[in-house]
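step: validate -> pass
step: tokenize input -> pass
step: predict -> running
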Amino acid sequence: MRERRKLIVVSNRGPVTYGRDADGNRTESRGGGGLATALRGLVEQHDVTWIANAMTDEDRVVAGEEQRETILLAQDPGAYDLYYNVAANPTLWFVQHMLWNLPYTPDFDRHAWVDGYRVVNATMARAVIAALDRDPAAAVFFQDYHLYLAPEIVRRERPDTLMSQFVHIPWPEADAWSVLPPDVRADVFTGLLANDVVGFHTHRWQRNFLRGCIDVLDADVEGDVVRHDGRATLVTAHPIGIDTVDFDALSDRDDVRERERELVASRPEQLVVRVDRTDPSKNIVRGFRAFALMLERHPELRGRVRMLALLDPSRQDIPEYADYVAAIEHEAAALGDAVDLRIGDDFARSVAAYKQFDVLLVNSVFDGLNLVAKEGSYVNGRNGVLVLSENAGSSEELGEWAVNVNPFDVSTQADALYAALAMDAAEKHRRAEAIRAHLRTHDIEEWGALQMADLDRVRSTV
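step: predict -> pass
step: emit ->
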């Protein structure tokens, strides 16, 4: 049996969110995004205090009450808007996914960085310090790009605390960070190095971070350890897995089966599926253009193959995201009935589509990992083929069995879609079985255990 540990998990969004039903009673539901699901195993296996920001009006009410296992922080609305909608998204997100159109954007917003990102990070750091006052032996596990500054604040107050941070999005090479002013990019790297462990999904992102520590901070790097400002930080690469037990159950859920029956009743001979957020990093527009080009090159497929695009609206308060939705809808309209575009949050429909695809298209510009590639491949019951961007982190694991594409080459993507549709049954079966076997072995439980093993590794050297 694994040792139960005391952990403080810190993230922008929490594991639950609160609301009110029609009768005015408080309701509780699983938090949005994949992070709550990814960390659920840690919550079940360890004694976890989770610190996050209040997202709803009812969350803010809860934030004013006595809290224990989940601590919600009611941030100043103006500071939170600057933190989330300007500094974290799109600034950091666009830097790390290399999405900026540099001749025109960005104009760095120092006000958002100082009065938004720094303020919210400081508030969360103070909440961590208060939690450590109650339980000094707990380890702290920061999550993702929203919290690059908080670890250094905690470290100054609690120098002996064991701390780790996992970055779930890509880490670009050092030149990409020159979009940010020198002091700001130094703050990002220095903040992360206040942790004892920094984790990424792939060796590619790990290598970029290690090289960046040299270029940005002139830090000493030896193997997977960075030495800077009198401290040593272990930098690791562990791709997150999926909860295979959970997805086995999801596949048989009534609402999934109902949507699958609807899909089967109207599906063409072959079905290309994509499941994404409406984020520019997902490369949806080029995916539509590649599908259109495939049909132009192979007109015999018209009427026999259709693309089903299930898209979850994302960050529509940010102009770049709203503009991208308009571009998506424009490209879909040009395809006519060759594409079935649905924008909305319907996870049951997504799982049903996972089960039914002949080709799953994941052509992201860059992704830290991309769980759709894993979830869809695991659930699929037709030996469907994965067409996968070489810039998706999951390509490091699954690329051997996928049809790999460059996300900027529409012509090659069109050829890859055709190759996947035309692949013989035996080869499809071989690839699909290999991916499923890999996912069963390298699941979410393994990822959680590896995070704890990293903490043990650094603790043993203290």
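step: describe -> The first strand starts at residue 6 and ends at 10.
step: cleanup -> pass
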